[in-house]
Amino acid sequence: MSLFNKLAVLVALGLAAPAFADNPYRLKPGAGGELCLECHLTIQETMELPHVHTPVKEGDCSDCHNPHTSAHGQLLAVEEGEICGMCHDDIVPDEPRSVHAAIIEGNCNSCHDPHASQHANGLTEAGNQLCFSCHDAMATKLGNARFPHAPAADDCLTCHDPHASTEAEFLLTQETSALCADCHDASNATFVERHMGYPVAESRCTSCHDPHGGDTSGIFLANVHAPLTRKMCNQCHGDPSSPDALTTKKVGQELCRGCHSKELNEIQARSRVHWPVVDDTSCLHCHNPHASNESGLLTAPTTAMCGSCHENSVKMLDAAAFKHAPAAEGNCSVCHDPHASDNLLLMQSARIEDLCSNCHDWSSHTSHPIGEGLTDQRNMNVTMDCMSCHEAHGSSFRAVLAKDPRGDLCVDCHQRIAK
Amino acid sequence: MRDLRNGLVVLLAMFFFAGSVAAQDVKLRPMRPIYIDSLGAAIRAPEGVAYDGSSRLVVADTGNRRLLVFEVSEDSISPSAEYRVSQVPLPVRVRFDSGGGILALDAKSHQIARLSSTGTFKSFVEIEPASGRRSVAVKGFELDADDNLYVLDAAGARIVVLDAAGVLQRSIAFAPEVGFLSDLTVNAAGAVFAIDSVERRVFVARKGDEALSPLTDVMDEDMAFPTAIAADGSGYLYISDRGGSGIVVVGDNGSFHGRHSGRGRSQGFLWYPSGLAAGGDYLFVADRGNNRVQVFSISR
Fold it and tell me: How many whole angstroms separate alpha carbon B224 and alpha carbon A317?
């Protein structure tokens, strides 16, 4: 090629380069999104809704979707749980005290439609109905309450942040006392009178009141400690006018002993006292001294409360395919005494057979001998009992058996059968 | 140059290999468990065990409300004495002092009793409640080589250290991360280690520390509900995982050295194990649910 021809080729290439650089893949106009609508007609209809997601509105489908291939569903550019965070990375603040489970699970679509919606912010439902689609127990509670708390019935977002909170647990926008004070003036004469003159402005209101509603005009929690019902706060606390009015007259179980001496004496008489009962906090580890929605004024449902220390038992139970009914229902006290016992593991009975026979007639379901005098072949110091074959909480096998009944369960003891 | 590079590769390979070996470098070999006393009566729900490192083993035979002493030799472990102490109706932790005396913790009164070497009650260890607290509730204790007594006071949220005469030497505060501490041990360097049943991690206070601090991360993959801990003289801590029926070995620097045994009735297995004691090449475990003391030989 002559020098002239080489120069001509170079000039031609130079002229073509800018156009190629602007559109290296030679995309058709609207390839970022508008073209998609030619096939995806439902999206076109969706765009007529009043609230359209900005990328959809601007025809930038490829902001979220890969037009060719993807390792993720819906041809999403990244995992569904991460895609929203590519733009909305400030939804969860630094060091939150609580985060909505839907966000932790990356399930933004449970509340928001990613394309368009009838409702502001792309919400799939309006107001409380959206929250009730998951929190259906709350819908029932509010519906059944004789005195629903108006802000809760009107709009959950009066008190809760739907995404996360740096201020409080349960997605509350402020700590409880401050939140309540937005509407309830603690200096108001009626407020003072109703609270017997005690300086409760800084107290945790939910210790007595159900913030969602209840069957009493004071929206008290379902079960109220008797002294509180009788407005006898000074049975436990100082005089309302004293500087330490809210301080209790005694500490821990010494205070409770004033009324519950019989129960506490019975507890102390046992050989083994549950450790939370032993220290100064004592009863208050598990019981709310004012009110509770749980029976026995427990601070939480039994599974959650016992599980706060015995997490391993709860986890094991969750993972079990077959669960022992009392454990699955959170009735730990069917088998264990939560306060004290003379028996190992705070069992209600010394002999496992006695405990189990409260619900199960073992003699009718098996011909396998158990009981005193029948030694476990694996261990000369252990007699055969229900636990020789069954687990107490849950297992992978039917009837909460400890091992596979088609093999290891029997062979573990009856080795000759295996041979 | 190539030789140098090859040398580095070999060194790196050795480093990683050494790391993988470290996780399994303590082996526990089950030996014949201890089932009976000198009269052939069965041990019942033992919760504590102590070994003097050479010849004497004491078992808190809790279910039978007594202490049993055994003579340990190279080829046998033989029952030698039984002590029933009315002041200690429910012994759950035991230790030997340097003079052969026995200290025993009673689960009902939460007090530590000092006994002579022949099991005669001498006195209870006197401990003042922590500031602002009304009572002391001892959950666990340990002695060091100088007979200093380290007491885990659950009611006072502290560990108190008393000298051999019972005089308070210092108090070690719990760390804010603590859930519920069940037991403690002391190594030869005077470091105190405590096991947290709820958080499933080990805390440490080195000599001179005023408070515990975490030694390990939360070990919820390795332990279910650990309740006892014992140090040997070789830099290892043995943890009895009652909820998971196993033994976890941790270095006194917090390194993980394996999980051993498992839930079962046969020799070598455990059923809700309780206290343990390590000394020489032996690990003794009060195998509560199996009504026996499980013995392991340790190879490091």
Answer: 13
Count CA atoms closer than 13 A to A93's CA, side-chain side. 14
How many angstroms separate the CA atoms of B86 and A347, rounded?
A: 25
Burial class (CB in 10 A: 0-12, 13-18, 19+), A216: middle
Size of interface A-B (CB pairs under 8 A): 73
**Distance, in angstroms, between A366 CA and closest chain B CA?**
21
Check if the beta carbon of residue B246 is closer than 8 Å to that of residue B260: yes
Angle at B24 between CA B19 and CA B26, to 5 degrees: 120
Q: B225, B242 in Cβ contact below 8 A?
A: yes
Kindly report, residue by residue over B52-76, the tens digit of the pLDDT: 999 999 999 999 999 999 999 988 9
Residues B27-46+135-299: name the CATH superfamily.
Answer: TolB, C-terminal domain (2.120.10.30)
A271 vs B272: CB contact, 8 Å cut-off?
Answer: no
- CB atoms < 10 A from the CB of A235, how many? 15
Q: How close does chain B come to A271, measured CA to CA in Å?
A: 5
Asked whether the beta carbons of residue A280 and residue B197 sit closer than 8 angstroms, the reply is no
Ranking A65-69, A251-255, B2-6, B146-150 by mean pLDDT, the lowest is B2-6
357-376 in A: which are within 8 Å (CB) of B? Answer: 376
- Tokens standing for residue A341: 């016992």
pLDDT for A280: 81
Please give the DSSP secondary-structure letter assigned to residue A359.
T
Q: Contact B217/B203 with Cβ under 8 angstroms? A: no
The beta strands (E) that lie in A18-158 are given as 51-52, 98-99, 116-117, 147-148
Q: Which two tokens stand for residue A325?
A: 């009914």
Instruction: For this complex, say whether ipTM is above 0.95.
Output: no
Task: Write down the domain spans for chain B.
Answer: 27-46+135-299
Q: Render pLDDT for A321-334 as a digit per residue (tens, 0 to 9).
A: 999 999 999 999 99
How many Cβ atoms from other residues are within 10 Å of residue A172's Cβ? 19
Contact call for residues B243 and B267 (beta carbons, < 8 A): no
Q: Is A312 an interface residue toward B (CB < 8 Å)?
A: yes
* Distance separating alpha carbons of residues B204 and B194, to the nearest angstrom: 6
CB atoms within 10 A of CB B202: 26
Indicate yes or no: pTM above 0.90: no
Compute the distance between CA of residue A117 and CA of residue B289 in angstroms, rounded to an integer.
Answer: 61
The first and second tokens of residue A42, run together, are 């439902």
User: Side chain identity at B299, as an amino acid letter?
Assistant: S
Q: What pLDDT was estimated at residue A46?
A: 86
Decide: B245 and B226 in contact? Cβ < 8 Å: no
Facing A275 at nearest CB: one of B89, B134, B180 = B180
DSSP A383: B
Q: Which residues pair with B246 in a beta bridge?
A: B241
Q: Which residues of B touch A254 (CB under 8 A)?
A: 134
How is B118-140 classified by DSSP, letter by letter?
Answer: T--EEEEPP-PPPTT-S---EEE
pLDDT value for B176: 96
Segment among A27-31, A169-173, A270-274, B115-119 with least mean pLDDT: A27-31
Contact B91, B105 (CB under 8 A): yes
Distance between CA atoms of residues B92 and B139, nearest Å: 9
